[in-house]
Amino acid sequence: MLIRIGSNGFWARRDSPSDSLNETARMFNQINGQIIVEIGSGIHGRLAGNSILTWAKKTRARRIITVDLDAKQIDDVKKATSKYKNVEPIVGDGLKYLADFSETIDLLYLDFWVPDPEGTLSGTGRAEAYRAAFAAAKNKLAQRALILIDDTDHIHPWKHTLIVPDARKEGFVVIFVGRQTLLMRNATPPAVR
After folding, report:
1. Cα-based distances in Å from 119 to 7, 114, 183
2. Containing structural domain, residue 48
3. How far apart are CA 77 and CA 32, in angstroms?
4. Confidence of residue 192 (pLDDT cuts 50, 70, 90)
5. Number of domains in the chain
6. What is the CATH number of the domain that holds 36?
7. 181 vs 115: CA distance, rounded Å
8. 45 burial via Cβ count (<10 Å: 0-12, 13-18, 19+)
9. Of 163, 142, 48, 2, residue with least CA distance to 95
10. What is d(CA 79, CA 53) in angstroms, rounded to the nearest whole number?
11. In a domain, 138, yes or no
C-alpha cells in the first residue's frame, strides 16, 4: 500500500499497527518469552495501537516493563493496565533504564521520541537514539529475542535507519517491515508467499 505524505512531510493517513502488534505477541508466546521492555509508552487510541494493552492481553509475559519520560503517559498506562499485575509502568529515561537493566529481554519494543539536534536533517535524532537503545540493550537480549520498532513507514533518516543494520550485524533477521519493523535473532527468514 502506498502511504501519502502530507505537506508537513509526515503521513497523510496511516494504517493501525494492530496486525504487527498481534503478530509480535504471537511470536513472543511461540518463543516462550518472559520479559518485555517497552521504551516509550502511552494510551493513544486505536490508530496508535496501544501496544501495552496488546502485550498485557495477548502474551504470557511474566514482566511487561514500560518506560517513558512523560509522567502523564505513565499515569494513563497505570490506569489502563491496573488489572494486569505483570505490567510495570516506570517514569524515566529509557536509554538509562536499558543500560542499567540486569535481566534478559525477550522483546524490546521501541516507540519513543527525541528531538533532532539543531541544524540536522529531520529524523537524525531518532535514528541515533534508536541505535543507542540497541547498543544499551544488545547484551541483554535473549538468544531468540525480538525487536519491534514503531513508525518505520517513514523516509530516512528515521527510527529504523541505523538500528536495523546494527541489529542485522548481531544476527537479527528482518521478519517484516511496514508501519512497524520486526527483527528476530536466530530466526530462519520467513518464506516469501
Report:
1. 20, 15, 31
2. 13-69+92-110+131-154+164-179
3. 25
4. very low
5. 1
6. 3.40.50.150
7. 21
8. exposed
9. 163
10. 11
11. yes
Q: Are 189 and 173 in contact (CB under 8 A)?
A: yes
44: cell is 493513544
Nearest-angstrom CA–CA distance, 36 and 38: 6
DSSP state at residue 5: B
Q: How many alpha carbons fall within 13 Å on the CB side of residue 114?
A: 22
Is position 30 within any domain?
yes
* Residue 141 grid cell: 537480549
Q: Taking the model in full, what pTM does it have? A: 0.92
| 80 in any annotated domain | no
Find where cell 496511516 sits.
14
| pLDDT tens, residue by residue, 30-69 | 999 999 999 999 887 766 679 999 999 999 999 999 999 9
Q: What are phi and psi of 100, to 5 degrees?
A: -90, -10
Q: Which helix (H) or strand (E) holds 18?
A: helix 18-30
